[in-house]
């Protein structure tokens, strides 16, 4: 083994696999700098923004910070959100997974950032908690090779949980890491990891919950692809990300879309994004705030008004007046609210 | 009960949500001197558990936490 301090950057999502990878590296005496990347597509952030609770009534927790507490290691939260990351999302070289998830490109982007830090600050290698065969898009052998190559980390990216199933990396060949103490876990079962956690005395770790990234969410993905089809230029803004994750979405037509809030918190949120959009609200009865993007024609204005009426307290009234506001101007459309959601379900995005 | 120390540094993360408030206090803490007290103001309802975990991980001292309406105020002493 090396006769100097070995230093590595560990990417810590907060899930069990990344916790174990950190524990394994520290057990080899390696100095680990734990990094968690923030992309701006975090489901947890939106849950907090909308005041949502877990089934037990508690506020959803940040797994990476909890993992840091478990490991008694500071987790550095590195902000990757911004135009460069949004461009990865809108223009993935390796395409999308089942939804709007450009997992291979996302990993290349993150690992490139980790490489930059490694090179600038003299770390020996980067490691992750990835497990061979665990995820269909990015954790197979061939995509892993692509990710290693395109991130510039080829040979310097170690996956301690599956290392014995993969080609030895440079830190293993250089004697910085003892390959014999690495593992050969593969596949989707978590039993080997749970047994290892038990052996290492790690009792607190999150249960798998389908990931914390909106890009893997089916509804978000559908809305994202719909938005991209609507735009002349394939671009995504941060406020569009927030709106894609909020409310009920309906396609009024190719050039107009309706977003209807589901509760008081979403009402307040949508009111922050009225600039350049119509804000809709029922007059004289309580109901949701809604936004219309684009330039709806008369028929679409009536359609949107009937939907907004349906979700308010006036849904059983013969007619409800819906106020349309934009840029200081206000008009009203009086409509009969839809009597059931089934009547406009086909418009849902 | 001893009086709480006056904060020398302040982070106002009102209106920002996880993980941004912790990113902001971490940035200030990196520049702070040992013993300095930092006040975090936030509206994210989950910041209490985040801050507790962050303090445990960084060994910074979590002095106090209070809610005033929807606003959360916490004091942390840099180790």
Could you provide a short overview of the structure?
The complex is a heterodimer of chains A (349) and B (79). By secondary structure, chain A is an alpha/beta fold. Chain A contains twelve helices and eleven strands.
Question: Would you kindly provide a written description of the structure presented here, covering whatever features stand out?
Answer:
The complex is a heterodimer of chains A (349) and B (79). Chain A has helices spanning 16-27, 43-49, 63-71, 83-90, 103-121, 141-150, 170-173, 191-200, 218-230, 238-244, 264-271, 298-310; strands spanning 7-11, 31-38, 75-79, 125-127, 157-158, 248-253, 256-260, 278-282, 290-294, 320-326, 329-335. Chain A is an alpha/beta fold. Chain A has two domains: 7-213, HUPs (Rossmann fold, 3-Layer(aba) Sandwich); 246-347, no CATH class. In chain A, the strands form two sheets. Chain A has a six-stranded antiparallel sheet, with helices on both faces. In chain A, strands 3-2-1-4-5 form a five-stranded parallel sheet, with helices on both faces. In chain A, helix 1 crosses helix 8 (191-200) and helix 5 crosses helix 6 (141-150). Chain A is elongated, with a radius of gyration of 24 Å. Chain B is α+β, with helices and mostly antiparallel strands and 79 residues long. Chain B has a single domain (9-77), classed as 2-Layer Sandwich (Translation Initiation Factor IF3), CATH 3.30.110.40. Chain B has helices at 20-31, 47-58, and strands spanning 9-13, 37-42, 61-68, 71-77. In chain B, helix 1 (20-31) links the parallel strand 1 and strand 2. The chains are: A alpha/beta (349), B alpha+beta (79). The A-B interface holds A 36, 38, 42, 44-46, 48-49, 51, 59-62, 64-66, 68-69, 71-77, 79 and B 17-20, 22-23, 26, 44-46, 49-50, 52-54, 56-59.
């Amino acid at each position: 083994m090396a006769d100097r301090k070995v230093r590595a950057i560990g990417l810590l999502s907060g899930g069990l696999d990344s916790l174990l990878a950190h524990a394994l590296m520290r057990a080899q005496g390696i100095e680990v700098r734990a990094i968690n990347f923030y992309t701006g597509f975090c489901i947890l952030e939106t849950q907090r923004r909308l005041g949502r609770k877990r089934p037990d009534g508690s506020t959803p927790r940040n797994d990476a910070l909890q993992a840091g507490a478990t490991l008694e290691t500071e987790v550095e939260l590195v902000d990757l959100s911004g135009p460069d990351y949004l461009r990865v999302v809108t223009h993935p070289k390796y395409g999308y997974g089942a939804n709007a998830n450009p997992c291979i490109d996302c990993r290349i982007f993150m690992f490139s950032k980790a490489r930059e830090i490694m090179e600038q600050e003299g770390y020996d290698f980067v490691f992750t908690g990835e497990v061979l065969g665990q995820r269909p898009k990015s954790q197979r052998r061939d995509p892993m090779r692509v990710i290693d190559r395109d991130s510039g980390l080829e040979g310097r990216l170690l996956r301690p949980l599956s290392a014995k199933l993969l080609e030895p990396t440079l830190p293993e060949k250089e004697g910085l890491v003892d390959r014999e103490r690495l593992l050969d876990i593969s596949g989707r079962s978590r039993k080997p990891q749970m047994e290892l956690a038990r052996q290492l005395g790690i009792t607190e770790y999150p249960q798998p919950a389908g990931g914390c990234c909106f890009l893997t969410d089916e509804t978000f993905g559908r809305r994202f692809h719909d938005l991209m089809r609507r735009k002349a230029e394939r671009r995504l803004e941060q406020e569009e990300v927030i709106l894609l994750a909020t409310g009920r979405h309906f396609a009024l037509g190719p050039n107009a879309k309706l977003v209807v809030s589901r509760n008081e918190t979403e009402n307040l949120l949508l009111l922050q994004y009225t600039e350049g959009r119509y804000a809709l609200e029922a007059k004289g009865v309580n109901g949701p705030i809604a936004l219309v993007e684009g330039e709806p024609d008369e028929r679409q204005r009536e359609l949107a008004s009937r939907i907004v009426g349906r979700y308010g307290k006036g849904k059983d009234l013969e007619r409800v007046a819906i106020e349309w506001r934009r840029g200081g101007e206000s008009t009203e459309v009086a409509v009969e609210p839809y009597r059931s959601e089934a009547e406009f379900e086909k418009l849902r995005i | 009960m001893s009086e709480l120390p006056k904060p020398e540094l302040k982070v106002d993360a009102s209106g920002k949500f996880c993980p941004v408030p912790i990113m902001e206090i971490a940035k200030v803490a990196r520049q702070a001197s040992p013993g300095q007290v930092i006040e975090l103001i936030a509206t994210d309802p989950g910041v209490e558990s985040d801050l507790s975990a962050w303090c445990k991980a960084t060994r910074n001292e979590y002095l106090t936490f209070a809610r005033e309406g929807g606003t959360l105020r916490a004091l942390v002493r840099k180790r």
